[in-house]
Structures are given as C-alpha cells and as structure tokens.
Amino acid sequence: MTYSGSQLTAVDAPLLGVNIDHIATVRNARGGRFPDPVAAALLAVEAGADIITFHLREDRRHIRDEDVQRLKAHVHVPLNFEAAVTDEMLDIIERTAPQHVCLVPERRQEITTEGGLDVLGQRSRMQDACQRLAKAGCRVSLFIGADPAQIEAAADVGAPCIELHTGALANAWWDGDAALLAHELDRLKAARPSPTSRPRP
User: Fold this and answer.
1) Mean pLDDT of 107-111
2) Residue pair 63/57 in contact by the 8 Å Cβ criterion
3) Cα Rg for the chain, rounded, in angstroms?
4) How many CA atoms lie within 13 A of 155 on its CB side?
5) With b meaning 16 or more CB within 10 Å and e meaning fewer, what string describes 164-187?
6) Are strands 100-103 and 51-55 parallel, antiparallel or unpaired?
7) Which pTM value belongs to this model?
8) Pairing mode, strands 139-144 and 100-103
9) Among 29, 36, 119, 148, which is least packed, fewest CB within 10 Å?
10) Class of domain 2-190
11) What are phi and psi of 195, to 5 degrees?
12) What are the structural domain ranges in the chain?
C-alpha cells in the first residue's frame, strides 16, 4: 500500500515482485554456488518480474552480503530489500541504496517472518530508520499486522508504505476454514487507514 495525498491506496504498486530468498536457501543447503539467486533473479526479470525482493537476515541463512552486491550490480529492475531495524542492516541498506526497503521484525529461531513490527512500541526507532533511509533515496515500507493503531503509528513515524502480515489468512485458506478465512478478511478490511492518515513530512 502507498500513501497518495491524504489516502493510502495501491497506486504505483509493482505489478509483480518475485522473492528469491529460498533459491539461496537451497544453494546454502547444498554447498557451493548453485542454484544462484542472482541468476534466478535475472530469469524472473526476463519472464516479466517488475521487482526483485530479498531478505538479508542477521544470521545470513539464505541471502548473503555478496548476493546483495551482485543483485545491485546485475539486476536492472527495482530491488526490494527486506531487513530488520538494526544499525548493521541500516548501514548495509544505505551503501546498497535499493529503490525499496521493507523493514521487518526478526527472531533467529523463526523459520520465516511470523508477525508484524511493533511500531507503537518503537516510535522513535522507526521514525529514525524511516528518515535515515529516505535520505538514502529509499522508499520505505513497514511490515505490520492488520491493526488500525499500528497503521496510524506507521503514518505518524513517516512511513510512506506498509505491508500487512497475512499469515493467518493464508493458513485459514490452506486449512479450508471458511469461517476463519472470512474473519481474517474482515480484519484486513477493518484495518484500512482513515482518510486523514498520511506520513509525517
């Protein structure tokens, strides 16, 4: 989602973003250089991908620093760099200068990102990160739960974009739980930002 004027809309959203993290997971499990996540990114672009997404985790369990450097050098569509809000990651993002950044929560024991950022509880940290990355030319989004209060907080700290965590929705669909699926859809609809929500200048 993207703020446009006084409302959060889907304007200027990429048509297709492809995440290459688990190409790197397979490579790392096998050892060696293959399959190559950068080659996979180039294939995705050739097939029509508009944006390439990757997550440089603190433990480097899939994408590695050298992958980031090669993606920046060889992939000529916008990059979406997912990362935790740490000084190390913010430094790397500034040096890389991707077009898009999605800030996410991260726990070492999780297999994949399991929830959204607590923007309400980290206002100062989130505002500093948004301002710092905006100065580096990055369009910043925050990965948050479908909670109206968190969405308002994201606007308050200056995030121009948000990404909503939809894990519960996906699980309900997979399990064939129609009632829970309807509930999760309603939660997402109810989380729609108010018309007065806008990022802080």
Assistant:
1) 60
2) yes
3) 17
4) 20
5) bbbebbeebeeeeeeeebeebeeb
6) unpaired
7) 0.84
8) parallel
9) 29
10) alpha beta
11) -60, -20
12) 2-190
Which pLDDT score is estimated for 7? 40
- Cα-Cα-Cα-Cα torsion 75, 16, 84, 198, nearest 10 degrees, comes to 120
Distance CA 123, CA 128 (A): 9
Burial class of 110 by CB neighbour count within 10 A (0 to 12, 13 to 18, 19+): exposed
Dump the DSSP string for 69-136: HHHHHH--S-EEEEE-S-HHHHHHHHHH--SEEEE----TT-SS--S---TGGGHHHHHHHHHHHHHT
Q: Please, which residues bridge with residue 35 across strands? A: none
DSSP letter, residue 194? P
Tell me which amino acid residue 150 is. Q
Q: What residues contact residue 135 under an 8 Å CB cut-off, 6+ apart?
A: none
Checking 23-31 for CB contacts under 8 A at 24+ apart, the result is 24/54, 24/62, 24/63, 24/64, 24/67, 25/61, 25/62, 28/61, 28/62
137 φψ region: left (φ > 0), alpha (ψ -120 to 50), beta (else):
left
Angle at which helix 123-135 crosses helix 87-96, to 10 degrees, equals 20
Q: Which residues pair with 142 in a beta bridge?
A: 103, 162
Q: Which of 10, 27, 5 lies closest to 163 in space, CA to CA?
A: 10
Contacts for 156 with CB less than 8 Å, ≥ 6 apart? 123, 200
Q: For 7-23, how does the pLDDT look when each residue is reduced to its tens digit (9 = 90+)?
A: 444 445 557 999 999 99
50 vs 12: CA distance, rounded Å: 12
